[in-house]
Amino acid sequence: MDIPRKSAARKRRIRRILYALTALVAVGLISVGVSRLRPAAPTVEKGTIWPDTVKRGSMLRNVRGLGTLVPEEIRWVPAITQGRVERRLILAGAHVHADTIIMELSNPDVQQTAVESQSQLRGAEADLASLKVQLEKDLLDQKASTATIGADYKSKEMTAEVNDELGKKQLKSRLEVELSRIQAADAKNRFEIAQKQLEISAARNKTQLAAQEEKIEQLRTMAKLREGQVEALKVRAGIEGDLQVLLVEVGQQVTAGTSLAKVADPRRLKAELKIAETQAKDIMPGQTVSVDTRNGLIEGTVSRVDPAVQNGTVTVDVHLVSEMPKGARPDLSVDGTIQLEKLDNVLYVGRPVHGQENSTIGLFKFDETDQYANRVQVRLGKSSVNTIEILDGLKEGDKVILSDTSQYDNNDRIRVN
Q1: Which domain holds residue 253?
Q2: pTM of the model
């Protein structure tokens, strides 16, 4: 009878344990290896992306905005006085000169006031003429009186001298001589007083005439103003240009200051561009602008930057210096490009869809095979309309994807097919 040996059974158990341990280690190693494998890169159709290559050189910084052509000189024709629109002589679209009558108003009160002003002026002028005659007569009378007093003074002075000589010869008494002197002195005083009164009268006459003349000048100014108000009832264009719009109808009652019409000079146009407020901070007067009218390009310069922001945009006025192309007219839609500055010897690339200046974004950069693109962090600098400066993350010759890749934000690698 065979007796089984214990050593053989023990060896078999040990082999089984070793086999199990080996299998467990192999499974663990396989699991670790599988966990470390990269997920499959998503595939992107080559025709759906927008690639570009990083370059080094000079980059022009531009900003672009839409706008319209507007006249540099626009005049809103106001009503100078209250009135009623009697008739419109021309219609919108007509070419007018400064003295062209656009419409006629009527206001009986204004016309009556003008007539009264003229009447008051003529009355004051007649009063001035009458005053001149009266003052001249009074002055002549006073001169005659002064002359009489002067003659009396001379006579008495001569009498006093004669009596003085006779008194020395004892031919006249001392009392008669003294009386003659007193009479001569009295006549002299009356003559001096008369002369001063004559001077005062002459000065007073000048003052009265000046006062009346000043009154006439006031009335003349008022009459001229009233005449101007009557003349203003004939509404004139004020400048040469095109009558763009009439704002009132025949029979309508208007008050002073009401806008009646709009006149603009179509020969002198400027461009008003609307620039996004985020791009307008570097715009300054004097910068070069190219304005596209869809029928030709016009060169210009920035003349004014509106300090206020409206609806997220800043208005920039452009003075146009080159000749207008055919078809250029007010309110024509245009596209303007403003040249901010020129950056020399910089890295730059086409502007990514979501790339803003002075920011850091992720871009997919092609590898050597051009079949895969890996995400890299890129620091951007100053931007232009179509290009942007590269500060860090890329080098000259790198090829990147500029189109929208937001759907691959969770992927660091894509495959371009």
Answers
A1: 73-107+234-264
A2: 0.57
